[in-house]
Amino acid sequence: MGKTAFLFPGQGSQHPGMAEAFYKQNNDVKALIDEADRILDYPLSGLMFAGPEDELKKTEHAQPALLTAEMASLEALKQKGIKADFAAGHSLGEYTALTAAGVISYENALRIVKQRGLFMEEAVPAGDGTMSAVMGLERETVERICSDISSAGGIVQAANLNAPGQIVISGDKDAVAKAEEMAQQENAKRVISLEVSGPFHSRMMEPAQEKLRSAIEPITFSKPAFPVLSNVNAREETDPAQLKQHVIEQVTSPVYWEDTIRRLLELGVDTFIEAGPGNVLGGLVRRVQRRGVNVYSAQDPESVEKTAAALS
């Protein structure tokens, strides 16, 4: 019997209207989202449902909004009796994975990701850092480009190793521009500048990492109900101290997402459920493994119904 993994998306998957159908149709989800408004002491749900998009995509709002929307999806899956053997989340999504596994409480998770968003916004002056997606190059080529530029004094590194031929780089604006140029010379299929507010998952995030460490240290991390795979090493972990260390390291480390999917496949996972808005992670699973896997969505009541029917 194959195993099931829940996948939780990261920043960029947020959109106005997310989790609204759950909220209207499901009292338990309504209570969960109302609780987020209470914990954070501002109407997060209003931003989630109606935007405006420019406000919702600010890191300090997007992170708690995504965590809340993903917990709404999780609640709907739970009500259908759908359980995970493993969980993983992309960047911010790792916090939802930890909450889903009972490592941190929903309240603590919301408070941490709100602070994480603020710390990440504040770490680098606006416009100094950026990120770009490089399509169609091998990992080794992208890493060589980054290391060549870095040894000449720039800051640029592979930040998200998402799937074969899809790598996001992050760093200072000039170094990223130079890396884009070099990637094109190496015949990258496409290079896309990303609309982000900072150079996430690069060493330019060190000021955010130190503040995050102070915020997370006093919070209790418990033993997970099922293993959570960490972004920093793509390995399953059940030790609370290690899980805590990994989310602190994650802010300046690459997200090894392709490796995470490959590890889940090695662990016998053949069913992947993306719990949260959008279908970015499901698409990445298919880029890693085309055959023999089932990829399902849980972004609204309709997709949860379809997923439950397919699994019954």
Task: Describe the protein's architecture and organization.
GO terms for molecular function: [acyl-carrier-protein] S-malonyltransferase activity. It is a single chain. The chain has 312 residues and is α/β, with parallel strands linked by helices. The protein folds into two domains: 3-123 and 204-311, 3-Layer(aba) Sandwich (Malonyl-Coenzyme A Acyl Carrier Protein, domain 2); 129-196, Alpha-Beta Plaits (2-Layer Sandwich), CATH 3.30.70. It has 14 helices and ten strands. It has a six-stranded mixed beta sheet with strand order 8-7-2-1-9-10, with helices on both faces. Strands 4-5-3-6 form a four-stranded antiparallel beta sheet. Strand 9, helix 13 (280-288) and strand 10 form a beta-alpha-beta unit. Helix 5 runs parallel beside helix 6, helix 5 runs antiparallel to helix 7 (106-123) and helix 8 (139-151) packs across helix 9 (173-185). It starts with a strand and ends with a helix. The mean pLDDT is 96.
Q: Strands, helices and their partners?
A:
Elements: E1 3-8, H1 20-25, H2 27-40, H3 44-50, H4 53-56, H5 59-79, E2 86-89, H6 93-100, H7 106-123, E3 129-135, H8 139-151, E4 156-163, E5 166-172, H9 173-185, E6 190-193, H10 206-216, E7 228-229, E8 236-237, H11 240-249, H12 257-266, E9 269-274, H13 280-288, E10 294-297, H14 301-311
Parallel strand pairs: 1-2, 1-9, 2-7, 9-10
Antiparallel strand pairs: 3-5, 3-6, 4-5, 7-8
Helix pairs in contact: 2-5, 3-5, 5-6, 5-7, 7-10, 8-9
